[in-house]
Amino acid sequence: MSSSKKPNILFIMSDDHASHAMSCYGSRINETPNIDRIANEGMRFDNCFCTNSICSPSRAAILTGKYNHLNGVKSINDHFDGRQMTYPKLLQQVDYQTAIIGKWHLGHGGLADPTGFDFWSVVPGQGDYHDPTFIEMGEYKQYPGYVTDLTADFCIDWLNTRDKERPFMLMCHHKAPHRPWHPSAKYANLYDDIDIPEPDTFNDDYATKPQAVHEAKMRIDRDMNVLVDLKALPPAGLTPQEEKSWMYQRYIKDYLRCVASIDENVGRLLDYLEEAGIADNTIVVYTSDQGFFLGDHGWYDKRFMYEESLRMPFVIKYPKEIAAGSVTEAMALNIDFTATFLDYAGVEIPSDMQGRSLRSVLNGNVPEDWRTSMYYRYWMHLDQFHNVYSHYGIRTERYKLIYYYAEALGTSGSFDEYREPEWELIDLERDPRELVNVYGDPAYAEVIPALKTEMRQLQLAVLDEPVEEVG
Ligand code: CA
């Protein structure tokens, strides 16, 4: 096969876009017609999970195909060591043109600058929504306009100047819809005249939940920075419940307005591929670095191993191989993306990469030995703003067992203060909304040791180490 026949790869990733704010995932709160085009023309993964639900660590896992204890990015404060092997570098070795445009968030300068890319133009840190600065191949340049539009503009500029005889891999990384949410002028008044439905678990009282849940500072009604996040103070005279609902509306509308810009710009890139006549030979992915709580359990943010945070949206199309409108329940992980792209590009997958190619799943043939459980680890402990305990756990098709070991263990951005370790068990079949911790329920006495054994096997298989377990 000549290199020109290798598929192009367009990897579009946003930041904190939960799947339950995408209409192809059945959103009750918005429409995403362009992202839906990818799902309609390809496959939707209903069980794609991140291995650590926070920005920089997920990005490092995607680039390397490895868990964070191996790629060195356990925390949002850790910088990526660009000497590591990544899939863009391996694609370059087989004649791909590579670029990353938009959000990097793995540090800047020296070893932390993007490597493995023929072209890179990334926003510093979290970046700005309006009139953002981009660092283009090391040079800082500010542009007038809205970051989501500009990111797509620069992607199209790069596609126009590429060598059309060679395949490309482009990472289009949107900053949006990361907090604090600033929509574009175009969508500033979207949803003005309607109320967005509140989620079923909006008023979760955490009655059986671990102390870790009670201590977390992610509650819409208590922990948001009202003026920064909501840009207004609640009207006087509201009851506490009315005030919480008011805050939710302010939050979710700006979040969804930011999503609307992403969706529009996904459409622009899809249109570009079609007009250029390369849609048939281009793999297109839309995903986000993790999920997000959209008022679920009364929260914003992520970090916890609960479904809204753990689940990544993942839709992918490649007309040559993937049946249009297909859906899979097969469990995929962010560390699988790298192996998948290498597989399509005909590159041997390095043995130390921990993910597995999704290509068989995408072809409609889930291998018999496909995983039925996954290992998760959130390393940051009591970070300054969200105060979540460090934890690890296992998710199987039916259960989720979480161990809040609650120690900093030297992880950057953590507060080195001990908390009593806690276990949580969720029966997803009986309790899909994850409202009840059944760890102490005698009905699960036989399930728990088996889950602990399986969790330990997964942990050791990815070369991680257990923390002393209590209780
Ligand atoms: Ca993120």
What descriptive keywords fit this protein?
single chain; 471 residues; alpha/beta; Alkaline Phosphatase, subunit A; 10-stranded mixed β-sheet; 16 strands; 27% helix; binds calcium ion
The computed structural class is: alpha/beta
CATH second-level architecture of the largest domain: 3-Layer(aba) Sandwich
Largest β-sheet summary: 10 strands, mixed
Question: Which ligands, by name, code or SMILES, are bound?
Answer: calcium ion
> What is the beta-strand fraction?
15-25%
Count of extended strands: 16
The overall number of domains is 2
CATH level-3 fold name of the largest domain: Alkaline Phosphatase, subunit A
CATH class of the largest domain: Alpha Beta
Shape from CA axes?
A: globular
| Rg estimate, integer Å | 21 Å
Mean pLDDT: 97
Poorly predicted residue ranges: none
CATH homologous superfamily identity of the largest domain: Alkaline Phosphatase, subunit A
Give, in order, the helices and strands.
Answer: EHEEHHHEEEEHEHHHHEHEEEHHEEEEH
Strand line-up across the major sheet: 7-6-5-4-8-1-9-10-2-11
Task: Give the CA-CA distance, first to last residue.
Answer: 57 Å
